[in-house]
Queue: 2 jobs
Job 1
Amino acid sequence: MLLQNEVVFVYSFILLVGSKGLETRAFSAVNVEIQNYKLMAPNPKFAKAYKAMRALGYPQHIVKPVLKSLLDVYNQNWQHIEDQNYTVLVDAILESEECKEREQQKFHLVDEPEEDEPPLKKSRLRSQAVQALSSPGDSSPSFKGTMDKPVHHVEYVIPESNGKEKMIESVHVHLFDNETEAKVLSPVPHYRREVKTTTPNSSSGSKPKKKIHVSAHDKTNESDLLSPGTQLNENCDTYTSCSIVPRMVDETGKKELLPDDLSELEVPLSVVLPGDSSNAKVHISTSLEVIDLDMEDTNNVELLTQGDSSNAKEPFSTSLELIDLDMEDPSAFSLCYEDESSSGKDSLPQGNRLEYECSVATKEENKSSTSSQIDIASSSSGEVKLSIIYESSLPSNFCIPSLDALFRRMEEKLHKSYRINQSGFSVMNLMKDICEGFLAVGTNTTLDDGVSSADAHANPVAPRILDTQDVLNRNVSHQVGFCVAPNISLGSVEFQSLNEAPPKIPKFQSLNCFNLSRCKIDLTMQGSFSERNKNSLALGDQKSSTSTSMVIVQTQHFSNDMLSSAYYIDDITRGEENLEISLINEINNEHQPIFKYIPRNITYQSAYVKFLLARISDENCCSNCFGDCLSSKIPCACAGETGGEFAYMPGGIVKEKFLEDCMLMNRSPQQKNLFYCQECPLERSKDKNLSGKCKGHLVRKFIKECWYKCGCIKDCGNRVVQRGITCKLQVFMTPEGKGWGLRTLEDLPKGAFICEYVGEIVTNMELFDRNSQHTGKKHTYPVLLDADWCTEGVLKDEEALCLDATFYGNVARFVNHRCDDANLVEIPVEVETPDHHYYHLAFFTTRKVDAFEELTWDYGIDFSDHTHPVKAFKCGCGSQFCRDKKSLKSVRSRG
Ligand SMILES: C[S@@+](CC[C@H](N)C(=O)[O-])C[C@H]1O[C@@H](n2cnc3c(N)ncnc32)[C@H](O)[C@@H]1O
């Protein structure tokens, strides 16, 4: 099992006070915002291309040069490069990698990958080898090393009058080591840096700016200029601290540069403020901090330095730039400080640059021996964030609790253990008090200037946790309270305030799976504060808006090894579906199977599928309807197919009775309602001349949905399948050896629509030919559209259809089989044509399904039928009703 038996809880609480001055002081008295620096906005096409290539295992530094050459070749025309999902780029990378590999093989330095490795893996191996080779003595801090003693290689070079450079020192500096040892090793001051993030002000509406602060701590002076606490947000919680080693380079960006006489400069090195430079030294130990270092998006990055305000007369006007930010390796990057304006003895030589080489440690590496930690941070947007990180063993049966259960438990505990029995006491209020207290202490004020602490709670946010089911149905009108969002993205459950927001599908957190290394609970509180007294921390008057949001993120705990081996793709649909469907493999090296994602069925060649309005009679549509058919008292003609009653309830849930009937018809063999063709197209496809005896086909119940010829609205409740996937799904590698599988990332009620089985519409004959041509090749399990073969006598070949998702398909191609008690059932759905040769095959849940459960359906395989066009696999469904006797035997003999 990949889960490590450990969990870290982060409780964080943000109080937005909406008062800039207050917040600045709350952060740290010595902090001075020195400047905002925005990086040039990179071309988003690059980012997109890097992302696509990263999904294939190619890091940016490999892609970048290839992409640049391609752009040169194509005259900066992206279209050729973007075409067919960057095929040209992939080819070019492969070629370039092969070239490099050939070069390296000359020196016998690379282990040859196995010949039968898949190309992607092969090239990944290659690229790893290339990386390893290209930086044998790399001085950049290693991500893998422990944080106790990361070793940095620092060189000091002096430029000489002849233009050459002279190396004056080459040392290894042990960072984070004890001071004495570091001093012995190098006279160079060393710095500890904390990477911090704050949650951007979400109330502003505009895209929040990403900020980068760097906190430096001069250990030699023992002066701690760090702001109180560290708070990490989900974008960046891998990075908690890093080290920087200063070095100077000349304007060409070449090697380090130090003036001959080191003593002329302050040690640590100094930088100079503009204007009156005589008295304007600020040590490099100036506090810098990194906020919201979003490696995915260097757009809108702001660098802020925070200096000793006693020395700083005014903010730096010199530029700071983030250089060498290697997206693939956030463990090492550089910050460059360029002094443009200064002159004078103590300044950097004109035009020179001071570079900070930074390394970032992961939380993992930097774990202290203590089991919990409290961090407090505030931001320029007026938030106070309180984080309590608690590390403990994770029981194997741990699953994410609901927020109200957590609150109940906490309140019980506080009542029992601390005898807090005050009415009105709640965990929420406690958290709020802590944040207010933090601000109060930080601003040297008390709560007593006209506003009592009781007043502070006069307008409390009263959480009302809605039933998950309510939200699932998405039909409840939300007034006030929390919404327990059913949409879980990569392990997160989001609780959102719906105080003011209209009920809508809440925004998912876009967490990168690889950052999900801890269990985190964020309590975010926002409030407008009374302007009566800037120092007052009470919640504002009645008019002020308050909103509360909570986020629970359950994350799997990956070790570094696992992180590097996990394979993850954001969206296998490439934007074809309403929402992204990710794919993750934490089990083996298998990459995403090659197929083309299509959201709707498509005819391969001979299948007769014609949608003709003329074929839709009045009984087959509801042209006189308007509005939502489900809300009409008398069911319309479209309910005729289902006995004059709609199969759906509002919210797209299939009615219990209808669902149970469908399940029963599919399930137990005794109750199976089979019909037999006069001349079975399936048997005929096996042998065109000798038509074998029909083995029977299931009689199924159809759902008929309203469609274009109907008069109802697009949002009519009798249009479900045609609207596509609406629940959060993920393709994952199953640990039981069934290959890829599909799971839900959110709790689902019984009868919910999941997806339809989409593939190429092929005739039985075409399918048979395909299978015989591609023997031994891995095929997805095709489905027969045979639900109505009984009604029309002898079917022509082009009318006897199946869906094959092997080459073109949707997410349903990943749904594995489970004998009898699967949690999905397939129901034929008529949308475009009353002609049942062709219909949609839609999957609905047979019961309530929990988040992260694998979704399965019963393929209806007869494991003893060896003549079936698709060879049955050895079933590993694990069901107690498993019909595969061979598989059962092997399980028993193993047992
Ligand atoms: C429709 S695909 C499902 C996705 C597939 N697991 C994959 O990796 O692409 C059907 C194939 O999955 C595998 N499979 C599905 N259910 C299985 C089960 N219960 N036991 C073993 N293999 C299964 C079989 O190889 C089958 O041919």
Job 2
Amino acid sequence: MGVRAPETLHEFEAVARGRLDPAHYGYFAGGAGDEVTLRANEAAFGRLALVPRVLRGAGRPRTGVTLPGGRAAMPVLVAPTAFHRLADPEGERATARAAAATGTIMIVSMAATVAVEEVAAVAPGATLWFQLYVQPDMAFTEAVVRRAEAAGCTALVVTVDSPARGLRERERHSGFHDLPAGLCCENLRDGGRVRPIVMSPEISWEHIGLLREITALPIVLKGILHPADARLALDHGAAALLVSNHGGRQLDAVPATIDVLPEIVTAVGGAVPVLLDGGIRCGTDVLKALALGAAAVAVGRPVVWGLAAGGERGAARVLELLRTEVEHALTLCGCASVRDLEPSMVRRSC
Ligand SMILES: Cc1cc2nc3c(=O)[nH]c(=O)nc-3n(C[C@H](O)[C@H](O)[C@H](O)COP(=O)(O)O)c2cc1C
Ligand SMILES: CC(C)CC(=O)C(=O)O
């Protein structure tokens, strides 16, 4: 990991960048269009300030959270990201072990380069959720869901922000086109072939209803940005929502996730937990999201940077850094647990 081990998530990115094939770095780092939303996700956290409470005698804070698909030792989950074997030969196996070591939940991407069964087998201590792009062929979708269930995944995270793939200029310019020979999306195997992931504009709420009938797993809808969709998600039996703009990789010019979180939390009215991802780069970002009503957050790129910088140990270090930072920030905010955070503790600073 270089002369001095990286000590912040931004340092992990710098090390990862130096190690990755530039085309792969472009794929992981890039966003859609002019990357307005990609930048906005991080910048919006920078415009918020935390206002601590004092003299509460809170003691050492508890960082754990309970969610529909299980408990996590910290309120930071591993967001689903594709193609981990581009970052490290062990790929998703390493990520899952890192998640298990820090006691958090890994959301395994449907586009993982290690099969979900194998990810579960090599990290028996990990709590895994499975991310799904509903495929127009519902029989195949059901087969994938069955694999996730049989592997022991405890929630289904259905990504709903991708009726088409985002237009990713940086990815194109960096020369990333496809997985190299020898790697494929192992969760898309179907007999002797590997199916391509279809992103279809025909997927609708009806498909969520069908999924609800197919599986007893809690369904988390990932990619909700509009309060009306948050209410529809409740009508369709979602067990949780994940406010996400796909890390700025789908429609450019959508708002930063932290800026829409309060509206979604209000729309949901406490009926189900609301999670958030996009632009979380340190412990105080986590606290800001939790104070504004998120039950937990997820990180995408930072885990990939950890993986590229130092394999399983690097990914574990990234998660551990976040856990330590969250605990420290909670202490300085006078909180005994994440439940003590509330909206009055966040201000717009400029
Ligand atoms: C390289 C990369 C691959 C991703 N692959 C998926 C995926 O397969 N499924 C999915 O639902 N989201 C995917 N995402 C989106 C992430 O789950 C998450 O929404 C986003 O990374 C959060 O932003 P952050 O990277 O700023 O933490 C991907 C994101 C990145 C950066
Ligand atoms: C392979 C892609 C479908 C994964 C993805 O969602 C992404 O790159 O953002």
